Amino acid sequence: MTFDFTIIVPVYNEEENLIRVEKELLAYKKIASKPTCILFVNDGSKDKSQSIIEDICSRNNGFEYISFKENRGLSTAIKAGFDHVKTPLLGYIDSDLQTSPEDFNLLLQHSDAYDLVTGVRADRKDSFVKNMSSKIANGIRRTFTHDGMDDTGCPLKVIKSNYAKRIPMFKGLHRFLPAMILLQNGKIIQIPVRHFPRIAGTAKFGLWNRLLGPLSDCFAYLWMKRKYINYEVGKKSE
Asked: Going from the N-terminus, what domains does the chain have, and what CATH number goes with each?
């Protein structure tokens, strides 16, 4: 079967969630607006995540995985997913399932006209501290990037693969994906999606990751923006 869309699922110590992830993704594949495959990226999990992922992939068509030798962080996991995708469109979703795979269909409706479509979490089901730190971090980031995005931390995105593969990722840059598409003169849009409370597992980010860390990343982004090389081939020999 030929697939048009790959969902990247970064995983780090999510053994309690993975069977539910399998169930939700299988249900989505049946209603997906484009033929869809799944790519798990195991970011050096120390629990039973890898063995569960292998079992899931062995019993389901269109499910594959790559596994790191050691933990390298979310940006690296996403970058590895970008590198390994073979479909014209890719998306990613967190394995905590605080967003629903079903909402990929909302984003895919805009994938012809836009090069990146990101969700914006409506009625977030997080703690007050998490919500406020995310709001402040997004405000700081918008000041630096002028990307107009309200919720770049939303773990539900659809990107044209040729754009995603040109992003020079560094640690923390997953928060700047819309801005990096703009550097390529791409078009971006945000679409409201549903948000759910975490049912199992534990959050991997604290106050530093959500607020203070992204502030330092903004300066890295500004350096990259000044140095970024962008070109388009107009003609080449046959």
From this structure: 5-227 (3.90.550.10)
Give per-residue burial for 197-219: e unless 16+ CB within 10 Å, then b.
eeeebeeeeeeebbbebbeebbe
Tens-place pLDDT, residues 184-201: 999 999 999 987 765 665
CA distance 238 to 233: 13
What φ, ψ does residue 212 adopt, rounded to 5°?
A: -75, -40
Q: How far is the C-alpha of 131 from the C-alpha of 125, rounded, in Å? A: 9
DSSP 5-39: EEEEEEESS-TTTHHHHHHHHHHHHHH-SS-EEEE
Give the strand pairing for 89-93 and 5-11: parallel
113-130 pLDDT, tens digit per residue, is 999 999 988 765 555 445
Task: Please state whether beta strands 63-67 and 5-11 pair in parallel, antiparallel, or not at all (unpaired).
Answer: unpaired
What's the pLDDT at 157? 94
CA distance linking residue 47 with residue 31, whole number of Å: 32
Q: List the beta bridge partners of residue 120.
A: 192
R_g (Cα) of the chain, nearest Å: 17
